[in-house]
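One chain is below:
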Amino acid sequence: MISIVQAPAYLAVQDLGWPSSRSAGMPLSGAMDRWALTAANLMVGNAPDAAALEWALTGGRLRFGRDTQVAVCGPGVSTTLAFPAGGEFDLVRPTEGRFLYLAVSGGLDVPEVLGSRSTYMPAGIGHRLKAGDTVPMGAPSKGRPRMPAGAPNYESGVVRVVAGPQRELFTSPAWERFLESTWRVSRASDRMGYRLEGDVPVAAPAADLPSEAACVGAVQVPPDGLPIVLMADGPTVGGYPKIAVVISADLPVMAQRAVGGSLRFREVSIEESQAMLRDTVPLRSARGTWSSLG
């Protein structure tokens, strides 16, 4: 059992979500940084999709009810630690990025809902944790710990995209503006979507579009011309034109951009995006995909 002695401002149980339920209206959800969660699990011998703790914003303290191996992974940190029964772990406020992932040997043994142990608060599913809560651990893993490879370049200020399904509705100057502008992550951002701010908005097309399927990483452009990148808890359908889609290999980089963090977009082909995803080693053994466009 893990006891939450002091909870950070955000702490939740996540795994890789619901990759097969989008046709039923269920978002992907799960970890915002799927690479970091998968890597932390591999480091303690777990299955790549085992449930772990997603940690953000502030520091906190945990107490472990039995001897356990713990891995912490995220921008600027990748480490394993051993704790005895009753041992406490003070995790400081993340100094890089936005999310850290803490995996314990055996994973977290919370109930599954529709095949996932993830937290999706808009539907009241899962476990957003506070001080005084406890989380059961699974039996210690018998798997061989593996060091992850293919880590995202979290320090990169470039996020790669493929052209979106409504790219042709945007003028060439609007597309160039989208790619050449420096965008900042707005405070009005959450697990559903990251709103971006820029000095010059993208000219949105004057089109009345029906709602259609949307994927994680889709970059929508509302009438104000300020893009919104759909994230893990994003809707399965949307009506704003989608100018681009963040490639799966760069979704962790996007997810870890803190409020006020800047970025630029760079276009790649679908074939290039697929090759880049194959290079992110921990994801090859994880279930599910992030984006229908690779």
